[in-house]
Predict the 3D structure of the following.
Amino acid sequence: MDLGLQDKHAIVTGGSRGIGKAIARELAREGADVAIVARNKADLEATARSWLPRRTGACSLAADVTSKEQVDRMVAKAAQQLGGLHILVNSGSAPGGSATATGPIETVIDEDLLQDFNVKYVGALRCSELSSPFMKTAGWGRIINISGGTPATPAISARRPQCRPGAHDKNAGSFKFGRHGITVNCIHPGTTRTERTPSLLAARAAQLGVSRKRRSGKTSLRTRRGAMPSAAWWTLRRSRSSRSSWPR
């Protein structure tokens, strides 16, 4: 597959695991130089050892997207090491959010909800704000926000404002940046199988008191996990469906 990304420079937040990691790998396979970003240095170093050494134009950078100072340093360093910026993928957040920041309103802890909002929504805005000047200079850019399926669920979550105002910001961003050759999109992949899925399902099963085995005709958590698309599947599917949107 050729998406016309040869020699493009990309930042992928949340690039050490899950969907972000899969996206970073696919971008690299398409010829882009990628900087993967994450808070957890151990995960970041493990991912860097697994495939970044094979990419001469790639790097790993530790940063917390809740800190504007750290994001500022990260973006500047990525642009310096890669030789500019063309693509930003905002995928830096825990799948499903914090357990105490989602669910019925009476169970939500304010501080945890605000922290999730700061990571998922405001964090994406920080990265976009600081990356866009490099894209304007290049006259070409792509900003992709990885969201989720929260709008379809009746629960409080930091994902809900990120999905709906996030979609609005996508339109506002496209209007603001379009004349510079920059597009902004928000992707809602839904539940996706990643390396964290087994532990997340086990924790959810324990919380609900549900066995992972099939019981009395009900769909088990194991069956649901088997039906989940993988992060690599979503990345490949999105890449194919967006092929015409990448200029040659």
User: Anything to note?
Assistant: The radius of gyration is 18 Å.
